[in-house]
Amino acid sequence: MTAREKKRKAAMIAVAYYLEQEAAKNNEVKDVKAWSSAGKEVMMSNRALVQRRGRLLRSRA
Length: 61
Known about the structure:
single chain; 1 helix; 61 residues; mainly alpha
């Protein structure tokens, strides 16, 4: 194996490692977004529940 082939092989390994790390980082970001959006959904449903209770109490009074 010549020096050029060794350098080429090392470069290919480095690029593959970089792409793998980027893919892992993108998956982490998606997980964070999923938690964030789930929290927002819970807050919105709680707010809707409170608003519905308020309407029911006012209509009976």
